[in-house]
Each structure stands twice: as structure tokens, then as C-alpha cells.
Amino acid sequence: MRRFALLLLVTLAWPASAGEMPGWPARLEARLAVLEAGFDGELGVHVRPLDEARRFGWRDDEAWYLASLVKVPVAVELLARVEAGELALDEPLVLRERDYVDGAGPTNWEEPGTTLTLGELLEPMLTESDNTATDLLIARLGLDAVNRRARSLVPDPGSLGPITPLIEVRREAYGRLHPAARALGGMDFIALRRAEADEASLAALARRLGVPEERFALPSLDAAFDAYYASGLNAGRLDAFGELLAAIGEGRALGPAATAELLAIMARTTSGEARLKAGLGPGIRFAHKTGTQHRRSCDAGIAFHGEGAAERRVVVVACTRGERELEPAERVLREVGRAIRESGVFDPVE
Predict the structure, then answer these.
(1) Rounded-to-integer distance, Cα 338 and Cα 275, Å
(2) What distance in Å separates the CA atoms of residue 101 and residue 135, rounded to the nearest whole number?
(3) Of the candidates 230, 252, 282, which is a domain's last residue?
(4) DSSP string of 3-61, one letter each residue
(5) Shared domain check, 254 and 211
(6) Which domain holds residue 257?
(7) pLDDT (tens digit, 9 = 90+) per residue, 103-156?
(8) What pLDDT does residue 89 have?
(9) Pair (283, 328) in one structural domain
(10) Can you tell me the distance from the alpha carbon of 150 to that of 154, in angstroms, rounded to the nearest whole number?
(11) Domain Beta-lactamase class A catalytic, which positions (predicted)?
């Protein structure tokens, strides 16, 4: 019944004088208006077919926290350096205890002293959003090089905020509560991550820092992350990130072999199975990267439909902010994917 009501609202949103069904941007806009009205937060969406001039944006010109979407330009920098002969994917790095970063992925299960190649770090960084693998790669590539590469792929370099190592995310956020938190290491944050509730996290942080909670500069973890998000670190406009993905899809970021390799890895992504990919459906191939942080969720990539000359390639970037729980955020991203699929954007261009 609820689904029928939502579809009715979408139908009523189309102008009666149009005479025919509106184009895919108008249909998508109507669907997103309904979705955001029923969501405890805000949506940001950018859709850009690579074989036509039309683009669609829903709050895509605003600054959004990109979370682990920033791992895509790290991958581009690595593969560009491999193409140039400066690095090799079989180059080994040794994992040290100070390298561990809290988060998902297999690298944290490896023992200190384990040798991993750049290629063995690239795969989980993208497919499982492995933070430890990411920071090892950033350290090898150089943070300035990663940021230069990212900004070189968008028309307005100021539309993408500075990318930082992933360890700096919690240092920056928790450092808003107390400056001593900026000195914490990866193992400290792994221990703090076990306290999942916000109140428990604050208490655990106070114990680890050896200071009473009354001395924290802000009253809550929400306030700390809001202050961090306002810094612009690891943030950017969704249309700008769409430009970066378009540069990949159109072969402007990398050569043909490296482009194919990057998209193949992104198509193997296992994180965010309940997000855009679930709504786009089984007939659409999605090479993508997800991002998740405190009250923030993203999913972005290039969706492929059809074969050969009839293939449609569509850049999709979608983020949520404000919703406290992950499941509703993922559910609305799934519905965004469904709305994109049903808008007609994958239909052949006449």
C-alpha cells in the first residue's frame, strides 16, 4: 500500500500539460522528492550518462562528506604511477604494528611483519574498503601526489576538499573533543571502536586519554563529527566526484589497460550490497565504491547496461547525511538506485 502511494505521488508530480512522459531527469527528480520526504535526513545525487550531454543533480552542487569514496583517487594515482613505470603492483611493503587503522577489510587480520604487495593492497582497499591498506598505499604514493591527481581530474580543483590518511579521520573528529586525541594511534582507535554506542565511545575515549568527560570541548560525538565535517576534509561536491568518475570512464584518467583493471576491481566490490547496486538490479553492472562514516553513507561508480554499440554507461554518485542508523540510509540508497533504473536513463538514446 505504501509503495502504491509513493508511486501515485510521483505520477501526480508530473505536469498534466506535458502531453507525454517527461524525460529521465524529470522522472528521477519526482522520485527523489518523494524519497527524501520520507527519509530522516538529506539526499545528494548526481547522474551523468557518458554518451549524452544531459546531467542530473539533486543537491549535487553542495559539499558532501565523501568518506571512503576518496579511495578511488588513491587507486588512480597508484595505477597511473604503474603505467608510467615508476611503481610495480608486485612491489612489497611490510606491515608494521603502527600501520593498523580501524575499519573493515582483511589487512587488519595480518600479523605485523607480513609482506603485502601494492596489488594485494589495492584490491581490498576498493572491494572491502580496507582502511589499513589505504593508508599503506597513501604513505607509499605520497599524500600530496594523491591530492594533485584528484584535483587534476575535475574542472574546479576547489570542488574537492583535501584527502587525508584514514587514520586522520578519527584523530580529527575526536580531536574536536580533546586535543590529546590527535596523538592516538591506530590500535587505540581499534579498541575504541568496540564501544559502539556514542555514550560508551565518549566514556571509553575519556578513559583512554585519562581525562574526565567534563573536560571535553563538545557535548557529544555528533557535535564532534559535525565540526569535523565542517572542516571540508575528505569532502567535495557530488558533481565534482562525478567528473572524476567520468574521467575514469572516458579514459582520460588512465590508459585503456589500467582503466579496464580499475573498473574490474570496482565491479568486484562487496561492501554496500544493499545500496545502489541492489536498486539498480541484476541487469546492470556496477563498478563502484562505497563510503560510510558517522551519520554519512555514500555509493558511487559507473553503471553499465547493454552490450556493444547499445551499451549505456552512466556515472552515479549518491550520498546521505543526517540519518543515525545505517540500515535506513542503505535502504534509501537502494531506492535511489531503483529510481535511477526506472527513470529511463539506461534507455537507448534516440
Answers:
(1) 10
(2) 8
(3) 230
(4) HHHHHHHHHHHS-GGGSSPPPHHHHHHHHHHHHHHTSSSEEEEEEEETTSS--EEESTT
(5) no
(6) 2-69+235-343
(7) 999 999 999 999 999 999 999 999 999 999 999 999 999 999 999 999 999 999
(8) 99
(9) yes
(10) 7
(11) 44-153, 199-320
User: Could you tell me if 246 and 336 lie in one domain?
Assistant: yes
297 as an active site residue: the answer is no
In a domain, 131, yes or no: no
- Residue 304: its H or E element: strand 296-305
Determine the pLDDT at residue 340: 99
pLDDT tens digits for 176-212?
A: 999 999 999 999 999 988 776 677 889 999 999 999 9
Q: Which residues of the chain have pLDDT under 50?
A: 1-19
CATH number at residue 56: 3.40.710.10
**Is 339 found in the same domain as 245?**
yes
Q: How far is CA 237 from the centre of its chain?
A: 12
Q: What is the DSSP letter of 181?
A: G
Catalytic residue among 68, 129, 271, 297: 68
**String of DSSP letters for 233-292:** TTEEEHHHHHHHHHHHHTTSSS-HHHHHHHHHHHHT--TTTTSHHHHH-TTSEEEEEEEE
Q: Would the pTM count as exceeding 0.90?
A: yes
C-alpha cell of residue 64: 558532501
Is residue 160 in a domain? no
3-class SS at 101? coil
In a domain, 37, yes or no: yes
CA angle 35, 36, 38 (to 5 degrees): 70
Q: Count up the domains in the chain and report the number.
A: 2
